[in-house]
Amino acid sequence: MEHSAKIIIGANYGDEGKGLVTRHFAVQAKREGKSPITVLHNGTAQRGHTVDYNPEFRHVFHHFGSGTLDQVPSFFADSFLVHPMSFIDEYLELSRCGRMPRIYCDPGCVVITPFDMLIDHAIEADIAVKNGEREYGSCGYGSWSATDRIDMFPEYAYTVRDFLNPERFPELMDDIWKWVVFRAELFRLNLDAIPFYGRYFAKDSACRAAMLRHFAADLRFFLTHVTLTGFDGIWNRFDCPIFENGQGLGLDKDVPYEWHTTSKTGLANPVRLLQGRRDFSAEVIYVTRSYLTRHGVGRLEEEVRKKDINADMHDATNVPNEFQGSLRYGYLEDREQRQRIAEDWKLAEGLGKVEKSIATTHCNEFCEVRNDSRYFSDSPYSLRERIS
Predict the structure, then answer these.
(1) What are phi and psi of 109, to 5 degrees?
(2) If you write DSSP's letter for every residue of 70-125 in order, what string do you get?
(3) Exposure winner among 82, 148, 195, 324, fewest CB in 10 A?
(4) What pLDDT digit, counting tens, does each position of 317-356 carry?
C-alpha cells in the first residue's frame, strides 16, 4: 500500500490554524478516494483547534482530530497524553452532532489524572496568591505536571496498558499521589492553605474517594470507546495519515527560555513514527497566520496591540480564560519564523520523499510581513506556498 502522509506543524506559538488546515487535507483525501486518519502525537487535550462548518456552527477540537465531524478517525500515538476527563465530554458533544467518533489508541499512551490537574491548578493559584496575579503558564489540563512526572519519575509514567486491569487502579493512583506530594514540596506549596484547592488535598477522605470514583468512571468510558492498536496497525489500514500537531514550534519542549512547555511540537514524533518505512511520500505543511499570536506569558517578537493588527477583528475562539489570559498579537517577523522552520526541517533528513510548504491563514485580517515581500490575497485561507 502506497501512503501519502501530511504533517501539519504550527510555525509560531499556537493558534495558527492547524485545525483548519488538517480538516482541509482530511476532506481532500476522502474526495480522492484515500483512507485518511488524523494522528495526534504530542501534548494532550489542551489543544484548541477550531473548525468552522458554516456561519452557525463551529467546533473546537481538543481530544479529537479536526476531521472527526467529516467521519475521519483519530489515532492517539504513544507520545500523546490521553485525558479521559476531557475525552468523555468531547465524545458526547461530537456524538450529539450525529457523528460517532472512531478512535484508535496506542496502549503506550501515558494517562493524565485528576491529581495532575489539581497540582497544576494549585501551583498556579499559589503563584497568584504570592505575586498578586496569575502567571498564565499552565493550560489547566494537567499536562505540565504529567510531563514532569514522566521525566522525573519514569516508574510513575503509567499508560493506558497499565490501567487496563481495574484491580491495579488503587495502586496506580496511590503512586501518582506520591508524585503530587513530592511536587507540592518541590514548589514549597502549602496545599491546605490554598482556597478551594486545599479541600482536595486536605485529609478529607470522602472528597478524594469521590474524585477517584469519577475518574474511574471516565477511564472506563475511555477504554470502552477506543480501539487499542499501535502505529503499525494504523499504517496497515489507512493510506493517508495526517499528523495534527498541537502547539507551535515556538513552544517546543526544548526551547530554552520556556518552562511550561510539555511536548515536542515539530517533526520529532512524526519522523520517529515514519522512520524506516519506505512505501510513502510526505508533505510537511508549516502553518502560520498572517500575523503572530500567543497565549500566556513569554517571548513574543514584534508585539503590538490587537487594534494595530485589525481593530474590527473578532476571534470567537480565543477569548480570555482563567489559565491563559487574553490572546496577544504581534507582527510576523519572517526571518525568525523561517529560522524556526529551518531548524525543525533538519529532522527530516534521510526520511525519504518529503517536501515542505507553508500555509497562511487569516489573510483577510492582516497582510504585512516584516522583512519579506510576500503579501496575501483577501481570503481567510491561502494554501499554499512551496518553500525550499
Answers:
(1) -65, 130
(2) GT--EEE-TTS-B-HHHHHHHHHHHHHTT----EEE-TTPBBP-HHHHHHHHHHHH
(3) 195
(4) 566 566 656 788 888 877 888 889 999 999 998 888 899 9
- In the chain, CATH 3.40.440.10 sits at 3-106+229-386
Percent of residues in the chain assigned helix, strand, coil, to nearest 5: 40, 20, 40
Match 506559538 to its residue by C-alpha cell: 13
- The answer for residues whose C-beta is within 8 angstroms of residue 341's C-beta and 6 or more apart is 11, 249, 286, 356, 358, 387
Tell me the per-residue pLDDT of 130-168, one tens digit each, with 9 for 90 and over.
765 555 556 678 888 999 999 999 999 999 999 999 999
Alpha carbons 41 and 357: distance in angstroms, whole number? 21
Q: Which three cell numbers stand for residue 198?
A: 486545599
Alpha helix (H) residue ranges in 225-320: 231-237, 268-274, 306-310
DSSP letter at 140 equals S
**What sign results for the dihedral spanned by CA atoms 21, 24, 25, 26?**
positive
- CATH number for the 3-106+229-386 domain, one of 3.50.50.60, 3.40.50.1110, 3.30.360.10, 3.40.440.10? 3.40.440.10
Q: Do the beta carbons of residue 336 and residue 13 sit within 8 Å?
A: no
How many degrees, rounded to 5, is the angle at CA 121 between CA 120 and CA 127? 95
